Structure formats: C-alpha cells, structure tokens
Structure prediction request, 387 residues.
Amino acid sequence: MHRGASGCYQVTTTVGESVRAFVPHPLPPEPPLDLTGTRQRLLEQALLACGRLDGVSALLPDPDLFLYGYVRREAVLSSQIEGTQSSLSDLLLFELDEAPGAPFDDVVEISNYVAAMDHALARLREGFPLSNRLLRESHAKLLARGRGADKLPGEFRRTQNWIGGTRPGNARYVPPPPVLVEDCMAALERFIHDTQTPLPDLVKAAVAHVQFETIHPFLDGNGRVGRLLIALMLHESGLLRQPLLYLSLYFKQHRDEYYRLLDAVRREGDWEAWLDFFLEGVVQTAGAAVDTAHRLLAMFRDDERRIAALGRSAASVLKVYAVFRARPVAGINDIAVRAAVSFPTASRAVEALVSAGIARELTGGRRNRIFAYDHYLAMLNEGTEPL
Prediction:
C-alpha cells in the first residue's frame, strides 16, 4: 500500500550546506497495516516457524550452549554487513586471547557486539524494560573500544549524520536533525510498549526496526543496534524463550532489497512490501535454525556413541568433549580447567578426539596449541563468509 511519505522533511544546515532531513511520523502507520489475505498466511507461517524454533531449543541438552554459538554467529554476520572481514573462528580465537593474523579492529568490533548482546539480554532477564536507556547501554558496549570509540558511545547523536554520498548534499538519506532525535526515540519507545494499538509481535518488531533505522539516533553502530532490537523485542514479548532468531544472514544475502525496501517505506509509506520481506526472512531464518539444531543434536549423539566405544578412556574423553560442546574452540589449559581434569588427562583426551576426527588442531605449533570441534564450528560458520 502506498500511503505517501511516512514522514516529513525539515530543512537543516550541516557542514555548511542546507539539506532536507527526513523526520518520520510516529508509529503505528496510518492508515493501519493491511494484515489480510496472503500477508496473514505469511504471518501465520512465520509464527509457526518461531514456535518450532522455540520448541526445538527445549530439546537441546543445554539451550545456553546453542545460544553461545548463535550469539557469536550473529555478531559476525551483523558486523559483516557494516564491512568487517573477520570470521567466527577469528572471534573465538580472539576470546582466547589468541588471534593470529586476524584483523584486530574487525575482531574487536565483533567482540564488542557480543558484549552488547550479552548485556542487553542479561538486563531483560533481570526485569529491566526494553527502553531507550537499555539501547544506549548496549550502544556503549558496542563502541567501548576500537573503531567508533570516539563516536559518543551510549549517547544519542548531537550532530547531523547521513547515509551514502560524500557529504549531506549528495547523500542517499539524511535522518532527522539532532534536536529531534530524543523526541523521535521517545515516540518509538512509547510504540514498543503501547498496548492500546495491538499488533502481532513479529509485525511490531518489523516496523520498530524500520523506524529505528530511519531515526538513526547514534553517530555509529545504528545498523547493529537496529538488528539487535528485533531479537530483543521478540524475546521480551515472550514469542521466543531463547533469543535465537537473528535476521542478519537474511539481510546480508538480500542486502540491496533490504535497503530498497527501507527507502520505499520512507518515500511511499509501503510498509506492506517491507512486512512481506521481513516475514519471509523470519520463515527462512527460523526454519534454518531449527534444521541446524536438529543437525547438532544428531551430531552430538553420533559423537557421544563414538567416544563411548573408546573403552576405559571414554569417561575422561566425554568430560573433555562436553567442554568442546560448550566452547567449540579451546586450548588444553582451558579444557583442563573446565573439565576438572589434569593437563595430561586433558591432552590425551583431546588427542583421542583428534584421532576420532571430532577435534582438529588449528594453530600448527608445538606449544599453546588451540583445538576446534570441527563439525560444530563448520555448522556455525555456514553463511558467515566475509562479503
């Protein structure tokens, strides 16, 4: 539906030139969203896919184990959309204080994103509301170090920004003037918690994401915080008990269409085209996550059977294997501590896993060797190849 522009333009002056900055109308869209017909069926498919994802997470031996890997996978993908080139393996090595050859700034950015996600999820679990304060806190974690540390971490911008182009005058998009950012974000927060105009949780998250990206309230990190907002809204609403739905891979794979549809909402008010795209992404992403969870369960069962066949050493090898399930990249010292076994026992158990084709040595050295749960890491790496 083409409603006309979903906001108005305000002339503002920045870096010596006058530009038309776009100020979005408060949500919800007017006239109301059309959720009938094929769109209603697509919404039902998306809700069903989320229900399957929520159900399969309960089958996992430890849902936090799955969440650990998925959060890091999302951090890599969301950061790649912003131009980083590091891999999931780079991040896991960096978290061990071992990042040979990894672009330092890129890995720091991804590690910051993990910290921002972990902080936001922990705050929600302790009962803190999803609010602008929480988004600012998460943004502070995101830009705590590395590139962007000088871009007002944890604060809404106080200067004009723009997207695309070499200057505001030739930019693809100019967000609201800084004096209006607080008001725009306050209106978005009210919408997120509005119960008077009920919308399905998925629809609410979809339109809130567009509004956040349109406001672009920070000097840096808007894309990553905007994608995080989707996961936080679906988790806080209770749609997903575990925050396992992350759309960055879908947005990465359809990057041009993603940006085109955001622009279409602003210029034409075509929220429905965006909703169709978003809901299709939910169906695909949730389905892929369910498939990955089932594959992981099957792999865990197969590997445990192979280890059980090792005889007398099986008990200690299983302890070490449990460490790899929780942390798919680890060194012997860390493994020994986590498994509560001696260094020699951990070393022999890891060698047994290598011989069984379950673990693989990554560094190629004789000392301070790092090992990976190879097939688990390969599953998490699917789709994370740098752009």
Remarks:
- The chain has a mean pLDDT of 91.
- The chain is about 60% helix and 5% strand.
- Residues 271-308 form the longest helix (38 residues).
